[in-house]
Every structure is written in structure tokens, then in C-alpha cells.
Design brief:
32% helix, 15 helices, single chain, 7-stranded mixed sheet, 6-stranded parallel sheet, alpha/beta
Length: 504
């Protein structure tokens, strides 16, 4: 017996935690399930036939969060025979069979290397009425060969590599994602063109260590070449990338950013700590002088560049002097935004067993001082843009107060969040004409630490193919290769040929 009515397709929901890589993996999970005949359940539906948790293992409370959510689902599943629960992602790769031991009502556990197996595992678990746990130690197929249901009509993630060859002592990702595997440039560019053919205006190139791209095929300049090649794709208006590692950041990448018109002048480059001693303990193979030197070169080539970062507070052995050095680097770097974290002990990492684990209250107090320093700087940097006219790519879900304030929201080319008014000079509202994916030029009137407001009428508005797709309710889908996975229900009608690359 299943929760779906007889003859109707089974429904699914994917619940995602963690980084951009996980968000993109969830797009692949959705694409796989839909190509196998499942239908996405509305967000308000609390009894889908399949619930997939795509997990993260980076933070200390990741385990508690997962098992808490699984616990809430147990009585729901008990009342709906045939409902299935699957757990994938980094925490699944780490905990493996432990998940089914702690939560025996889970039907499927799959890892970071075998996302493509999910439909098979769900069907096998249903047939056998028993949990299926399948964790591979290395990549089965590169994930981008899988069908993908894109969440955005105007912006798309494109993986250029998976895995990481670094050995940072605080990070569990290399043991869960494996060694770096690079895609061939032609495959990447084919995927980008396919997205652009469907109306996408912006792509973000993804990798655990995006600028070490090329290490697998022996070309240390491959990433800069890839950025320049993206500049040759007609219709691609914005290119971003995340996250680079300072040790692999080369001058040719700065030149490619500055000289390729569609590459955005925004750079997210994790600092982690401003103390050389802490960086050494973290096994980060650069020092603060090297980091600041990269920023100096970036700003010399692109004075308008917005630079964001990641910072960890309270790493084992961090002294007050080490922390002060981090504040010094933050003040010198003038970040436009920073993702700040309190050190989180992760079992299986070298840092978890290091001497000098700091008391919670010390870490909390430093964290609050860091936040205050970062916000003082980001606010000052944002105030410099008041009176400037910026280009905004209109987005969905960026402004929680938009409906109440009569604004819409989007991202400027430098990545800053902009809330803008939609009233024309004559008082007429343009809200019905401006769609997600359209381009608006607007003048900044107010700055806050984390966003900008533009309360005057838009200077210009350009409707785009991405906006057309949003208005029509279409989202890009990249077919990939299903690899002989089972389907439910009637096979889908084959799509008409397009100018884009059908497989990659």
C-alpha cells in the first residue's frame, strides 16, 4: 500500500542542508526523481510519498538536526503506510549504517558518490520492505551527467569539480567528497550553453576548491582559461565562482576576471583566520600577507570588486593575540560581507583531538566582537554606494519584507543584495511588469550592513528570456543520462531537439 492514490504518480520533497554544492546536488536528486516518474509535492504537503534529506556534516549540530527531523517524521510515516524516507549527502556518507540503527524507519541511505542510485534504492526498498544502505568510497559517475531540475529560471549552478585535495585540519569534506575530480572544459561549457539556451543569464561555477581546477589533467592555468571561455558564450550575462583557495589563486585568474566582461567583479575567498600561527595549525598553506596581497592585486585590477570571506573563531589554541590579528586583517581587507563561524569540533578531523580546545564563553565573546567589527566595515563599504546606479538581476525570495514594503529584490553585479522600489515616475507600479530574471538599473538611496535600498523609481528595466520563463512557470532542466534507472508510470514524451547540448 502506498500513500499515492491508485494510478497517480508518487510525490516527493527534498529537504536540503549546507553548502551550494548540496543545493545543486538537490537539483540533481529532483531531476532524477522526476525523470523516474515522481512528481514534486507542494511545500505545504506534509505527507509526500518520498522525503529526501540531503545532509551536511560540517557543523556540530548537523547530527542532532537530522535525527530531530527524522523523529518528527516517524509518527507521520506510521500513519501513512508506503511513505519512504531517504537520507543522502555528507552526513549519510559519514554515518552510513548508523542512521538506520538510530532511525530504523528510514528506508534508504545513500552517499555523496552515488546520488544516481536513489531511484533504484527506493524501488528496491519498497520491493523488499527493508532498508537499503549504499555508500560508495569513490565517485560512481560525475554528478553533472545526471538529470537536473533547476530551481531558478535566471541563475544556475555548474559544477566544474568535486572533491578536494587539501587537508585542512578542521574540515571533514575531503573524507566525504573524496579527492578532486575535474570535468573536461568542453563538458562544462556545453552545460553552460544548454542553460543559456533555456534563458539562464547567470552561472556560478562550483568546486570545493574551484581555482585548483585543472590539477587532474595537469593545467594550472585551466581555471583562468575557463573563465575567458565563458566570456565567449552569447547570452551569458554574469559569471561567478565559489570557492577559491588562496594558495591556488594565480595572477592569470585576476586578469581573466578583469578582462572578461561577463565575469562579475565579486570574489568569495575564505580567510578562516588572520593569525599565521592559527593558519599553520589549520594546515592552510598561505599566510595573512599572501592573502592580503591577493586582495590588493584584485582591487588594483578591479577597483569596484566586492570581496567576501569565511572566518572561523575559536580554533583550538587560538589566543587573544591570534584573534586580534584576525580583526586586523578584517579591517585591512575591507570585506563587503563575511560568513562567520564559531569553531565546531567534528569527529574524524585532526582539530577535534588538538590541545587547547577553547571554552564556549571565550569563543562566543570573540565571535560577538568579530560580528561587530565586520558589520562596522560592511556598513561603511555599503554607504559608499549611496547615490550610485547599479544593475540588479531580479530574484525570488531574497527580500522577506518585499510584500509589506512594496519593493522587489535582487543582486547587483558585485553580489550585494538590493531591495528596490517598483514605482514609475508617474506613480504607476511596475511590479506586474518586472519579473524574476529581468534586469533593472536603479539608484541606491540607503545602505545597511547587509543590504542596499533603492527607493526611487527604476532608472531602466529590461525584460529578458529568463523573465519570460519565470512568468510562464518554466524552470530549466538539463537532461543528463539516466543510466537505466527504473521509472514509475508512463514514459515521458521525448522533448523536441534544442540548440543546446542534450547530454554532458
Amino acid at each position: 500500500m502506498t500513500t499515492a492514490a491508485a494510478g497517480s504518480p508518487r510525490t516527493y520533497q527534498v529537504r536540503t542542508y549546507g553548502c551550494q554544492m548540496n543545493v545543486h546536488d538537490s537539483e540533481r536528486i529532483s531531476g532524477l526523481l522526476e525523470q523516474a516518474g515522481y512528481v514534486r509535492a507542494p511545500q505545504a504537503d506534509d505527507t509526500p510519498d518520498v522525503v529526501v534529506f540531503n545532509t551536511c556534516a560540517v557543523r556540530e549540530n548537523a547530527d542532532n538536526r537530522l535525527y530531530g527531523n527524522l523523529g518528527h517524521l516517524r509518527p507521520v510515516k506510521d500513519k501513512h503506510p508506503g511513505m519512504q524516507i531517504a537520507v543522502g549527502g555528507c552526513l549519510a556518507q559519514k554515518d552510513r549504517g548508523e542512521i538506520v540503527r538510530k532511525a530504523p524507519w528510514v528506508d534508504v541511505v545513500f552517499g555523496t558518490h552515488n546520488i544516481g542510485s536513489l531511484p533504484v534504492l527506493l524501488e528496491r526498498a519498497r520491493h523488499n520492505a527493508a532498508a537499503e544502505v549504499e555508500i560508495l568510497e569513490s565517485l560512481d559517475v560525475f554528478p553533472s551527467t545526471l538529470p537536473t531540475r533547476r530551481e531558478s529560471t535566471y541563475a544556475g549552478w555548474v559544477s566544474i569539480s568535486v572533491g578536494c585535495n587539501n587537508t585542512c585540519t578542521f574540515c571533514i569534506v575531503p573524507s566525504l567528497r573524496g579527492k578532486e575530480k575535474d570535468r573536461r572544459p568542453g563538458d562544462i561549457l556545453s552545460e553552460v550553453r544548454a542553460l543559456v539556451d533555456e534563458g539562464v543569464l547567470e552561472v556560478t561555477l562550483l568546486g570545493q576548491n574551484v581555482n585548483s581546477y585543472g590539477v587532474e589533467f595537469g593545467d594550472r592555468y585551466a581555471f583562468g582559461k575557463l573563465l575567458r571561455a565563458c566570456g565567449d558564450i552569447d547570452g551569458l550575462e554574469r559569471v561567478r565562482f565559489t570557492s577559491p583557495h588562496p594558495k591556488d589563486f594565480t595572477d592569470d585568474v585576476i586578469a581573466a576576471m578583469a578582462e572578461t566582461p561577463n565575469v562579475c567583479h565579486s570574489l568569495h575567498m575564505p580567510l578562516q583566520s588572520g593569525s599565521d600561527d592559527v593558519l599553520r595549525a589549520m594546515r592552510r598553506s598561505y599566510r595573512s600577507e599572501r592573502y592580503l596581497g591577493i586582495i590588493e592585486k584584485v582591487r588594483a585590477a578591479m577597483p569596484d570588486a566586492a570581496i567576501t570571506t569565511d572566518i572561523i573563531v575559536g580554533f583550538p589554541g587560538e589566543t587573544e593575540a591570534d584573534f586580534q590579528r584576525t580583526l586586523d586583517v578584517v579591517r585591512e581587507a575591507r570585506f563587503s560581507s563575511a560568513f562567520t563561524f564559531q569553531y565546531s569540533k567534528r569527529p574524524g578531523t585532526p582539530a577535534a583531538t588538538m590541545d587547547g580546545q577553547l571554552p564556549k564563553q571565550v569563543v562566543q565573546e570573540r565571535y560577538e566582537r568579530l560580528i561587530a567589527t565586520v558589520e562596522e566595515i560592511t556598513w561603511a563599504e555599503n554607504k559608499r554606494l549611496v547615490g550610485e546606479t547599479v544593475e540588479v538581476l531580479v530574484a525570488v525570495g531574497e527580500g522577506r519584507k518585499d510584500e509589506r514594503t512594496g519593493r522587489m529584490s535582487g543582486r547587483a553585479r558585485d553580489g550585494r543584495l538590493v531591495h528596490f522600489a517598483t514605482e514609475a515616475p508617474g506613480g504607476e507600479s511596475l511590479a506586474g511588469q518586472i519579473r524574476p530574471g529581468d534586469i533593472v538599473h536603479t539608484t541606491i538611496t540607503y545602505a545597511a550592513p547587509h543590504h542596499l535600498n533603492a527607493d526611487g523609481a527604476p532608472v531602466a528595466h529590461r525584460q529578458t528570456r529568463a523573465g519570460d520563463a519565470a512568468e510562464a512557470g518554466r524552470s530549466p532542466r538539463t537532461p543528463g543520462v539516466l543510466l537505466g534507472l527504473p521509472t514509475l508510470g508512463a514514459p515521458p514524451v521525448a522533448p523536441a531537439p534544442t540548440a543546446g547540448c542534450a547530454t554532458h
